[in-house]
Design brief:
Blueprint lengths: L5 E12 L2 E11 L9 H13 L8 E4 L1
Parallel strand pairs: 2-3
Antiparallel strand pairs: 1-2
């Protein structure tokens, strides 16, 4: 499967998880598409998922693509 490289993203919010800051973002542009808007409810849901997820210890960013 071919990758779809993220070119640009928008910050939703920074969260602190296990003493580490993680930037929660959504992709606004990839090699294949542009996103001009992401509903606030979806942003909030994605943030909640990342807050509950088992995030790798070396992760600094989570991007919804």
């Amino acid at each position: 499967m071919a990758t779809n490289k993220i070119i640009a993203s928008q910050l939703i919010k920074n969260i602190n998880k296990a003493g580490k800051d993680i930037a929660v973002k959504y992709a606004t542009k990839t090699e294949a598409w542009d996103r001009t808007f992401l509903a606030p409810q979806v942003q909030e849901q994605f943030t909640k998922v990342i807050e509950k997820a088992n995030v790798p210890s070396n992760a600094t960013t989570a991007v919804l693509a």
